[in-house]
Design brief:
The protein is an alpha/beta fold and about 240 residues long. The protein contains eight helices and nine strands. The protein has one domain: Purple Acid Phosphatase, chain A, domain 2. The protein is about 30% helix and about 20% strand.
């Protein structure tokens, strides 16, 4: 069994389509999305439409919640007001049908790998879609996040935009990184123009996790943002 795990698309349809093109060339058995699909990027409605067409299970991220009930901007930094205007613009681009689709997202998605093995998909942690699971998260904090959980074989989480594989007790913890807004920074402080995702292969009791990066053409990326009508597009593109 091969499962593609996508997370944190954030309104970046160009990046999503690059990933889907690669998966079409090397098909998987299932795609799962870990949430945060529409906010913060230039193509929120396009991403929603593409995911709806895929029919894949989607976990509800914290920014999916925000888009359904917009409030103050999510994030931090001196340019938060610019991001806030982009976030509110993105929410305004979604139709009633788009919002109804976001409401179908699940708190968790479970995929059976074998009789005694499963993949559990969350956005932040099993406790909250705003929790961070990082390579440096202490074991006692992970214990609190997993309290009451029947341990899965693999726990897949997003939210941090940071690709990761680590162990906790008997579980494998993994994060596919971000399709639309990777957390990695170049020496100049910009995001690299690539899309991150993962493919999990389960074969006769053996698991392998392949963390992948798919390049995105920067010139096409910049044109797409500037042609979208998104506010502060030049500022947004300047961060890549």
């Amino acid at each position: 069994m091969r499962i593609a795990v996508l997370a944190d698309i954030h309104g970046n349809l160009l990046a999503l389509d690059n990933v889907l093109g690669r998966l079409e060339a090397a098909p998987v058995d299932q795609i799962v999305c870990l949430g945060d699909v529409a906010s913060d990027g230039p193509q929120p409605a396009g991403v929603v439409d593409r995911l709806r067409g895929l029919g894949c299970p989607v976990v509800r991220g914290n920014m999916d919640d925000w888009v359904l009930d917009p409030g103050p901007p999510e994030g931090s930094g001196q340019d938060l007001h610019l991001l806030g205007e982009i976030q509110h613009w993105g929410a305004s681009r979604l139709s009633r049908a788009d919002r109804d689709y976001l409401r179908t997202f699940s708190e968790t998605v479970s995929v059976r790998l074998a009789e005694d093995a499963r993949l559990l998909c969350v956005h932040g942690s099993p406790r909250s879609n705003t929790d961070n699971i990082l390579p440096t998260t202490p074991e006692d904090e992970l214990d609190r996040q997993m309290a009451g959980l029947t341990p899965p074989t693999i726990l897949a989480s997003g939210h941090t935009h940071a690709a990761m594989v680590r162990r906790h007790r008997e579980m494998i913890l993994m994060n596919p990184g971000s399709v639309g807004s990777p957390s990695v920074r170049t020496p100049g402080g910009r995001r690299p123009c690539w899309a991150e995702y993962a493919v999990i292969t389960w074969d006769h009791g053996a698991a392998s996790i392949d963390l992948r990066r798919e390049p995105v053409d920067f010139d096409q990326f910049a044109r797409t943002a500037r042609d979208s009508g998104m506010p502060h597009a030049d500022w947004w593109v300047g961060g890549w």
